[in-house]
Amino acid sequence: MFTSKQQLIGGMGVDPEIAAFFVDRNVPKDNRYWKGRYLYIARGTGYLFIPLFFDLQFRAGMAKEDILDPSYVSIMEKILDYAAKFEFGEISFTDQIAAIQTMIEPLAKHTWLMNDLREYFKVEPLKATGNLGLENSALNRGDALLYLLCVNQAPTDLIKKVIGYWYLLVPSFLLLDDIMDFNEDRKHQEENALSYYGYDAAGVIKAIETVERNFKSLEDINPLLGEFFQSTLEHKKKTPYFQHILNN
Description:
about 60% helix; mainly alpha; globular
């Protein structure tokens, strides 16, 4: 399955040019994140978040020509390549971050963010500090992509605004995925954000409340996106799997 331009534009409120750019983009060669993929925006949160995050950058006030610049997008793709290599056990977390920092440092326009990220990634698990991170450390596992913002020429206030948008979008995806995967993750002792709330019905309810607050905030930024997420969540809550974990 794939995500179409019309789904992004009409269903999620994504800017038409941004939607077309990513749906039509070729899968990057020799990139672990897209290995075995034939479509740039496959039907899955790990790919869907890309046009949504870029649309949020645009909505925050960043210039469209800057965020769709091929060099900017290529940096994002390379960060995801390193992230996938870590995810699949090909490199360590330390090596992942070191490689990203080496790539970004000569390009950075926001040294304050570069320095903040360098300090943030020194300690595991990642802890909320300043503009970075959430108290639920498992929801910070996608934060390496924030290095991308170091190279954007937007003013500091816009960079901070986009970081705030990031923490509404990506952790919500991660938390929903973790709710769906928590039995499997517990079995294999893998990181799961639900551990912060509790592996029971009460914990799932707290997690859902967190997601719903994020979706409400996103609705204020992009009404169609907020409605899409809320509708998706309501559908999930009616599935037998959700009903089972909510009643046990």
